[in-house]
């Protein structure tokens, strides 16, 4: 088996809140993700998914533990981590005053894509994501669907081996969400290692090769959907989640957050 593209060991993040004292947003998380794999982080809102992914992307510094992206430790070598990683979320902002083409060029340059290959890479992305008709339009003039395509293209502009998609479909309509999942599937087939966070059951079932159930900052179980079904005796993911989280007394709101998006 090949070495993982992403690995964490005892990854932990604590915050201090005056009303609650020390809060462990992420608590001793161990994960791996390999080439050609989509690892789903499945949990209710506030479970620690985004905090985990932000530590992997070097946006947040871990309180303790370690994490590597393509062999580079997030605290010791953050620049190399960022070169090897692309991050996308539904709330990812684009610069409104520059064009789609300029956006792709900027992100390729910032992430140190070989200068002599940048223009060819831009044209490849414009063609691949169907951006041609609006490549020279300013981002502020684009529809939400067009902005989505530009945002995904800028995420992969430097052709990183590791991709993070943090709740990517939250703000999308049904058709755009389907298209995004199809794109993510193709990226997996190209050998990317993909971390995909969601609280939507159908997305995890359809897209993820393995699923990590995260609750109150801790990983409760990791496995394929079949493995999780066999280990719990339950078929549906919301039932599997409740099975593992039961000892932590999940609130009714947390369970409903996971259940309500099931078709």
Helix and strand arrangement:
Elements: E1 6-17, E2 21-33, E3 37-42, H1 49-56, E4 64-69, E5 72-73, H2 78-83, E6 85-89, H3 100-110, H4 118-128, H5 144-155, E7 162-166, H6 174-189, E8 193-198, H7 201-207, E9 210-215, E10 218-223, H8 225-232, H9 237-245, H10 252-259
Parallel strand pairs: 3-8, 3-9, 6-7, 7-8
Antiparallel strand pairs: 1-2, 1-4, 4-5, 9-10
Helix pairs in contact: 3-4, 3-5, 8-9
Name a few traits of the molecule.
263 residues; alpha/beta; Rossmann fold; 6-stranded mixed beta sheet; 4-stranded antiparallel beta sheet; 10 helices; 10 strands; disordered C terminus
Question: Can you give me a brief rundown of this structure?
Answer:
By secondary structure, this protein is an alpha/beta fold. It has helices at 49-56, 78-83, 100-110, 118-128, 144-155, 174-189, 201-207, 225-232, 237-245, 252-259, and strands spanning 6-17, 21-33, 37-42, 64-69, 72-73, 85-89, 162-166, 193-198, 210-215, 218-223.
């Amino acid at each position: 088996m090949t070495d993982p593209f992403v690995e964490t060991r005892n990854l932990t993040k604590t915050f201090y809140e005056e009303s609650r004292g020390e809060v462990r947003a992420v608590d001793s998380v161990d994960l791996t993700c390999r080439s050609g794999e989509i690892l789903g982080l499945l949990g209710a809102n506030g479970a620690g998914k985004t905090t985990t992914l932000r530590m992997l992307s070097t946006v947040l510094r871990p309180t303790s533990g370690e994490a590597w992206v393509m062999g580079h430790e997030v605290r010791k070598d953050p620049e190399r981590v960022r070169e090897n990683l692309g991050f996308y979320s539904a709330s990812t902002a684009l610069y409104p005053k520059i064009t789609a083409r300029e956006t792709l060029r900027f992100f390729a340059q910032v992430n140190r894509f070989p200068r002599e290959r940048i223009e060819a890479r831009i044209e490849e992305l414009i063609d691949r994501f169907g951006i041609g008709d609006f490549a020279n339009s300013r981002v502020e003039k684009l529809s939400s669907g067009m902005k989505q395509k530009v945002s995904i293209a800028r995420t992969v502009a430097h052709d990183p081996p590791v991709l993070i998609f943090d709740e990517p479909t939250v703000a999308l309509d049904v058709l755009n969400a389907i298209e995004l999942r199809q794109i993510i599937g193709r990226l997996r087939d190209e050998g990317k290692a993909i971390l995909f966070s969601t609280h939507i059951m159908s997305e995890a079932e359809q897209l993820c090769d393995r699923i990590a159930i995260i609750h109150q900052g801790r990983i409760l179980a990791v496995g394929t959907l079949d493995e999780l079904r066999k280990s719990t005796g339950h078929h549906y993911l919301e039932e599997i989640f409740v099975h593992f989280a039961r000892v932590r007394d999940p609130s009714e709101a947390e369970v409903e957050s996971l259940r309500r998006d099931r078709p």
